[in-house]
Design goal:
The protein has about 210 residues and is of the alpha/beta class. Helices cover about 40% and strands about 25% of the residues.
Length: about 210
């Protein structure tokens, strides 16, 4: 499982060979496959109560991993967006019937409340606080009701592990602690309905189901 942190993520994932290699680099080894299964389990739990009549946006869709999952789950309409045409080109090959839109998650090209549910998986933990809040506000703006998002949240075990190893917890740019997460949601006016950890306390990955 290749680390997801690169020096220039916006530029790096715009390059076609890098986009083409993303899934293989992250999920082809045992660790990557186990993480993908754990993430999928958490996502299944998070979306379980959502009506399958929902129109869903998968923001920051990348190569379409979560987009494909949402389609398989039977939602009435799934739309996807990402900043990188190269990443979406990979996704389109597997999902030819899904509409894709090039867009930065902080400036989405959709009207207010265009979707019943908005998902954003694998992005927020790589954004600094100001950008993360802009993204959250934009995700909330285009959602009529629900958001399903992923944070990298650090607990006591991972703080201790970091003190021993010196490595950033979760291999992400901007993990948060519980107080930061709660402050983000309060600032944007979102209510947490449920949370599902990938592998607590060993992973920072947590999927939140939120309501406006």
């Amino acid at each position: 499982m290749r680390p997801v942190v690169v020096d220039d993520p916006k530029g790096h994932w715009q390059v076609t060979p890098n986009a083409e290699d993303y899934d293989r680099g992250r999920f082809s080894d045992v660790k990557g496959r186990v993480y993908r299964w754990l993430e999928g389990r958490a996502m299944s739990q998070a979306i379980q109560p959502l009506p399958r009549t929902d129109r869903v946006l998968d923001a920051a869709c990348g190569t379409g991993r979560i987009t494909a999952f949402l389609v398989k789950q039977g939602f009435a309409e799934v739309v996807a967006s990402d900043i990188s045409p190269a990443m979406m080109a990979v996704a389109r090959r597997h999902l030819p019937h899904v509409p894709f839109h090039q867009a930065d998650v902080t400036s989405l090209p959709f009207e207010d409340a265009s979707f019943d549910t908005v998902t954003c998986i694998g992005l927020l933990m790589h954004l600094d606080e100001n950008t993360r809040l802009k993204a959250l506000r934009e995700l909330a703006r285009v959602s009529r009701r629900s958001l399903v998002i992923q944070y990298g949240c650090v607990g006591a075990f991972l703080r201790f592990a970091t003190s021993l190893t010196g490595r950033a917890p979760g291999g992400v740019r901007h993990s948060v602690e519980e107080a930061d997460l709660r402050r983000d949601l309060k600032r944007v006016g979102l209510q947490e309905q449920a949370r599902f950890w990938a592998l607590r306390p060993f992973s920072t990955s947590v999927i939140l189901r939120l309501n406006k």
